[in-house]
Task: structure prediction
Amino acid sequence: MEIISTSSLNEARKQIQKLKKENKLVIVRAQDTEFNRKILENKDVSVLLSPEIHNRKNKLKERDSGLNEILCRIAAKNNIKIGINIEEIKKAEGKEKAIILARLMQNIMLCKKTKAEIKILNCKEKDKREVFSLLLTLGASTSQAKKAIE
Result:
């Protein structure tokens, strides 16, 4: 599993084409909102990974979860899954972990509303039940959580 984690759009497009030719799963790490939109408009991408993990500040009355309703609708239309990396959430501690979980909760709600799919990455077989419970706790529907851990 190779993850494209460049912030350059042209470089990302080149790597997407290369992986597509090799018939591999195309996973792109989320960057800023403009980058995410361009990536979601590319039908060759399979997963947009961890939009909730970034260093941008939340606005006064709005949480910056890396996604919005428009991005989720584009993802649903182009059949691109929103990826959640469980290992990154486990590594986070204290306030940082709380912020990531709050953003994740908002992203799950947006995905549920727009029917965009969620995909869990780096989940071991023995942890699937715990991850399923975590998703339910964060507001995912049962069917949404089941699809996410498959």
Q: What stands out?
A: The domain at 3-149 is CATH 3.20.20.140 (TIM Barrel). The first helix runs from residue 9 to 21. The chain has one domain: 3-149. The chain has seven helices and five strands.
